[in-house]
Design goal:
The structure is a single chain. By secondary structure, the protein is mainly alpha-helical. 95% of the residues lie in helices and 0% in strands. The mean pLDDT is 95.
Length: 59
């Protein structure tokens, strides 16, 4: 194998490792956003319930 081929294989390996790292980071961020969205949806639902309950007293 030539020096050029070795260099290309090394670069390809580095690129594949970087892609894997970025995919892992993307999955972590996606999971974080899903958890955050779910928490916000729950909070909105609770606030809507509380608003309905309070409106019974306000007329």
């Amino acid at each position: 194998m030539s020096v050029t081929e070795n260099t290309m294989y090394s670069q390809l390996k580095d690129i594949k490792e970087r892609i894997a790292s970025l995919q892992e980071r993307l999955e972590t961020e996606r999971d974080r956003y899903i958890k955050q969205f779910t928490s916000l949806e729950t909070l909105i639902s609770q606030m809507n319930n509380q608003s309905g309950w309070l409106s019974q007293f306000g007329g």
